[in-house]
Amino acid sequence: MAEKKVFRIAVIGAGRIGKVHAMNIHQHPETVVHYVVDPFAEEAANSLADRVGAQVVEPERVFADESIDAVVICSATPTHSDLIEKSLLAGKAVFCEKPIDLSIERVNAVLEKTRNCTAPFLLGFNRRFDPAAAEMQARVRAGDIGDVELVTVISKDPEAPPIEYVRESGGLFRDMTIHDFDMARFLLGEEPDSVVATAAALTSEGIAAEKDIDTACVTLQCPSGRMAVITNSRRASFGYDQRIEVHGSLGSLRTENVPTSTLVLERAEGVRRETPMHFFIERYRDAYRLEWEHFVDVLNGKAEPCATGIDGQRALLIANAAYRSLETGKRELI
Amino acid sequence: MAEKKVFRIAVIGAGRIGKVHAMNIHQHPETVVHYVVDPFAEEAANSLADRVGAQVVEPERVFADESIDAVVICSATPTHSDLIEKSLLAGKAVFCEKPIDLSIERVNAVLEKTRNCTAPFLLGFNRRFDPAAAEMQARVRAGDIGDVELVTVISKDPEAPPIEYVRESGGLFRDMTIHDFDMARFLLGEEPDSVVATAAALTSEGIAAEKDIDTACVTLQCPSGRMAVITNSRRASFGYDQRIEVHGSLGSLRTENVPTSTLVLERAEGVRRETPMHFFIERYRDAYRLEWEHFVDVLNGKAEPCATGIDGQRALLIANAAYRSLETGKRELI
Amino acid sequence: MAEKKVFRIAVIGAGRIGKVHAMNIHQHPETVVHYVVDPFAEEAANSLADRVGAQVVEPERVFADESIDAVVICSATPTHSDLIEKSLLAGKAVFCEKPIDLSIERVNAVLEKTRNCTAPFLLGFNRRFDPAAAEMQARVRAGDIGDVELVTVISKDPEAPPIEYVRESGGLFRDMTIHDFDMARFLLGEEPDSVVATAAALTSEGIAAEKDIDTACVTLQCPSGRMAVITNSRRASFGYDQRIEVHGSLGSLRTENVPTSTLVLERAEGVRRETPMHFFIERYRDAYRLEWEHFVDVLNGKAEPCATGIDGQRALLIANAAYRSLETGKRELI
Amino acid sequence: MAEKKVFRIAVIGAGRIGKVHAMNIHQHPETVVHYVVDPFAEEAANSLADRVGAQVVEPERVFADESIDAVVICSATPTHSDLIEKSLLAGKAVFCEKPIDLSIERVNAVLEKTRNCTAPFLLGFNRRFDPAAAEMQARVRAGDIGDVELVTVISKDPEAPPIEYVRESGGLFRDMTIHDFDMARFLLGEEPDSVVATAAALTSEGIAAEKDIDTACVTLQCPSGRMAVITNSRRASFGYDQRIEVHGSLGSLRTENVPTSTLVLERAEGVRRETPMHFFIERYRDAYRLEWEHFVDVLNGKAEPCATGIDGQRALLIANAAYRSLETGKRELI
């Protein structure tokens, strides 16, 4: 009886998102978590390794072990770029949470240094794998709404992160809007070349004190004239507000928020429905699972990575241009 | 037995929208259409007068007849400013379809000339009277969503008007977005002082040939930092797309499109619902009726006009600044 | 220049529903209210006649006046059968509010006596003209959902009528469910031949004291086996609950309630939408208007009456069988 | 460092639903699958055991092993009653898929025989754990809609099972409606004491040939007069149609179907949404997980089993009475 091929995976980072990926890897019939790495959270690493039958090791062990097929990078942002380089240069496939780095120079250097690596690299723009977004993009490409004219991304977090996080985040555009820049590119089907941004700090004094912003409206435009508009807030008190819309010559595609359940209460004072799912890990649970299935397809040579280093680079270039626009009050080239 | 006071109204303009107002006047228990005026459409004027038991007369007769309480102006745009002036100076209350004029100089002149008139003037920003929009604004004012942070207006026509109309329209921002500028002001609760616009002609070659635009994204900002974003298209092939949204510190208010009916067809290939109402007169039928009820309240001294000449002037100033922004690629002061 | 033919209508009954029909008649370009009749409400008759430019007369004048094309009967139920007979025998077309009579013997007598009358008779089952219901029935007939298997009618009033009304109403099945029996027949496309009913008086002690019921579930079955199920309550505290559903071999059609507006309020404690329209005249405003347009088509010989005396007779037979079922606890033949 | 208590579970039956429960057990931090039992599907048992790190054993080993805390019974229906008895008499907690047995005599015997067992018994009425249904029931109990008057359960499968399955199923009422009888009891808050049923075989000739039914409408009534109505079909071509509704004196609670995603496509010919989830394991994925969490609470002594043998017995008594009603055409006592 033949053995089924199973890919051995090393997971670096045993925090919240590392656990999500580790469980998906563990549950997928073609992948196992072989190593868990987290020098900064020993207990979490042990507990996670225990759960999935893996071994806790030092990072260097991962790159040296020829039996490891792929590395999943879920550690802190400043460690991403080194780990990507080491993994790819060691011939491992890489699945890395966004971003590659907050500095465009460092991102460029990573892309340059790994240019000749043949192992695949998937950057974790998880929202591309949300079933509604993926189906939307497929329908746009299939021509269901004709020519794309205007993409709208509404993206609001349920509450602002701790101010310590904000301080290290790279700012709203590089930390949060970056997902929306990627979604706009995913749906536009054409590279935007200019951006204009309007923003303010309205939700908390702490954010204003950090000279960061929490509420924004950013408009991208492509050479053909088609546009994308993104609205953001760090705080939608009713839940995680994630809606996208593509207007085309033959119609429109849009997604609605996902409520925690479909329960409806009707009383004389109004009809009550449940609020949108609050937490991103719950809201994008299916997306994370499908993202992993995609990566297994990549490992099997059945698919090209849906989002790569170039996508990370482009999104960061837009974020940087958006910041310039805030300063100059002008439309800026990306 | 006491007589009930009935206001005598003169309707100028017997076209599509003139008929809507005339029928609402006729059905209201406190108002009658006394005169119909339309020198350019004799047959339509006769037919309409017949329907509501009115008399067809020349314009001058309206201003000279002391028994006329109010004038409803539904004629072509270039005639508005003169008719407003004459009516107000004759002491008649005025209800005029938007705009006062396409030229800000002419609008300023009208406001200057009628400054001392005591008769009330209601400008027909009909969408303020849509039950959903009116209730939204009331709830915003009541604090239901806390502090207003971001207003979103999605406003798309089902199809572009004839190119002859486009040519005389003043352009997208002065003809169509003007309603959205007013809605943004209605909901923001603070006067916006800057605007930045992105636009293109994507739906038809005719519009591009006229150097007009048909697809746009305009962002307004107020001194406090709060924002409004408007997206427009001249052509939403699925119907009249009219949605508004206000995001605040305690929650959000939004309206959805109104389908032609609530019928749902569920089959294996998908769940089908009806498209949004296609025609503005059908979509805003209730708004026009409630607008008239408001004007009767104004005539009875029970309410101040909800939208005045100042509102028309402000919306036009925003439109003009938006055009400047398109040219300069910069945020422009309003 | 040719004159347009205008039908002269006599409206009998100047109450709530009489006013609705009179205004629709008045606004229709091919009909005028010529007479208003209401010996029991002189003031209401005068006021209504005034509004539509009609004359108040005694009933006999209507039947004697050869210029009258049609009679609209909106008076109290016990007067319906006589007025129908007199009008049809006088050669007038008749549009009568349901029911013909609460007694099946009297209904049979009316049908017998007017059997040879050639003037058309439309019975006012207004819900057939609701745009969603009419479109649903058209799609069922067009085969959009294949063979009909199960019809569901949910029909709940916002609040019970005064007990004096209940006492004269003929009981829930003859007064309220009668509309649902008609809707079930309209959608089934096959005559039901048996019925079984379950019911109780749950909403008010007054109704129980009158030995009437206010909450019911009635199941009809056709010879082919297909079914319809109706659920009723005299009191849906959140509004007028009117939903219908047809399940077929290829899919399903259903209608949802119509909210007073599409406004949505999203806050941390829940998402609030507006309640369904509360009042039947508001909810079925379009249906009444379309019903009148249909009757004008009938007058013009362009359509056969959508609902006739036979439909009134069949619905009453079902109601009577449903009452027998309540007594016997058995499925009863209709 | 203290050890965390982990319950050892034996799973009997390695089929579709056995796998669902085994994965939930495996993922729960307080439970492990220790044994997998399936004498009739060796390969499936091995594969499942492999996945969760368990051992494949004979049934008798389960009852003899004192370290086993609980038995999860997912084998074929005819084996349930024996396995329940053996497990409970061996002092194991039991979680058994419905039904206990298709024969009421056998069910009574199981309850009698295990009357003195102290280990808890949870019967798998999984829909009680659907988040929307659970929240609905909690709100009903909390009085959010006042007194319950009418419960409506719409329950339609996407397609009929193979005719071999139908033959062994016990018939529609004992196989499929049994879930709805349980849901009605869960929501009514009062034991129904009579039932009347209407049914037919409309979807397939095979079902008619087996003298079974596939389309039904069943009404239950309680001593207080309150009612529940259930409508069923073996085939809803658009997906798994699962909706419940409770009408009360102060309002109504209802659930809507769960679409595969919230994507909306708007085109001139209609607005398209996704169909409801098709497969029960996907639709009730969360319910199965929450059901297991509840069972762990039971094992920890923190909760009483939400559904017990008595609930299975009551639902079967209703099913039997419904069959009698079909034969007699009468309301039957339960």
From TrEMBL, chains A, B, C, D:
Pfam families for the chain: GFO_IDH_MocA, GFO_IDH_MocA_C3
Chain ranges of the GFO/IDH/MocA-like oxidoreductase domain: 135-254
Keywords of this entry: Oxidoreductase
Protein origin, superkingdom: Bacteria
Recorded GO MF terms: inositol 2-dehydrogenase (NAD+) activity; nucleotide binding
Gene Ontology BP terms: NADPH regeneration
GO CC, alphabetical: cytoplasm
Family: Belongs to the Gfo/Idh/MocA family.
Name of this chain's protein: Inositol 2-dehydrogenase
Record domain Gfo/Idh/MocA-like oxidoreductase N-terminal: where: 7-115
EC number assigned by the record: 1.1.1.18
